[in-house]
TrEMBL record:
Summary of the function given for this chain in its UniProt record: Endonuclease that specifically degrades the RNA of RNA-DNA hybrids.
Enzyme class per UniProt: hydrolase
Protein name: Ribonuclease HII
Organism in which the protein naturally occurs: Sphingobacterium corticis
Superkingdom per UniProt: Bacteria
Chain sites annotated for binding a divalent metal cation: D22, E23, D114
Family according to the record: Belongs to the RNase HII family.
Residue ranges occupied by any RNase H type-2 domain in the UniProt entry: 16-204
A Pfam family hit: RNase_HII
């Protein structure tokens, strides 16, 4: 079976109620980092659901209400640029996931986390899954929720700061975004600890 046809799995383990977690916006120069947690029924399946990066914006937005309707529970949370500057982006990503987990009305008894590192959440057991958003439905769903909610947030900010092209780049370090920072300076929504220099500009 080709890699592109592999079906995403419904669960990592069956004994405990499981939540998948993922974040969006880790590598951005501006805006918060968002994270989501999703709890699906044990036998849940959706053939369209996949890693948010492999889906078009239209498909992500179409899937969001389906995820929210069919999940047993879900939550989305964020950590601001100011907080990111204080604790660093790695800790902020974990904090965003913790905040999402705090909001679940149906607490998870087991967590599967996209990536290779995590800060333990209370005493809940967990497993980190590298590229988990392309392997497990709950992590894929979390990636879609985190991505779509963050994109909407950046679209709203873009109305106030159109020069930075956030409607297109969502805060990521594109050439146009970097040049705007060099020419106009940073906004209150930029991460001050993320450096923007001429040599970096030429890398893109």
């Amino acid at each position: 079976m080709k890699e592109g046809t592999i079906k995403l799995l419904s669960y990592y383990q069956q004994e405990l109620r499981e939540a998948g977690c993922d974040e969006a916006g880790r590598g951005c120069l501006a805006g918060p980092v968002f994270a989501a947690a999703v709890v699906f029924p044990l036998d849940y399946y959706n053939p369209i659901l996949n890693d948010s990066k492999k889906l078009s914006e239209k498909k992500r937005m179409a899937l969001r209400p389906i995820i929210e309707q069919e999940a047993l529970d879900f939550a989305v949370a964020s950590v601001s640029a100011e907080e990111i500057d204080k604790i660093n982006i790695h800790q902020a990503s974990y904090l965003a996931m913790h905040r999402a987990l705090d909001q679940l009305h149906i607490p998870a008894d087991y967590l599967i986390i996209d990536g290779n590192k995590f800060v333990p959440y209370q005493t809940v057991p967990y497993t980190c899954v590298v590229k988990g958003d392309g392997k497990y439905l709950s992590i894929a769903a979390a990636s879609i929720l985190a991505k779509t909610y963050r994109d909407e947030y950046m679209d709203n900010l873009a109305l106030e700061y159109p020069e930075y092209d956030w409607l297109s780049n969502k805060g990521y370090p594109t050439v146009k975004h970097r040049k705007a920072i060099m020419e106009l300076g940073i906004t209150p929504h930029h991460r001050k600890t993320f450096r923007v220099t001429d040599p970096q500009l030429r890398l893109f």
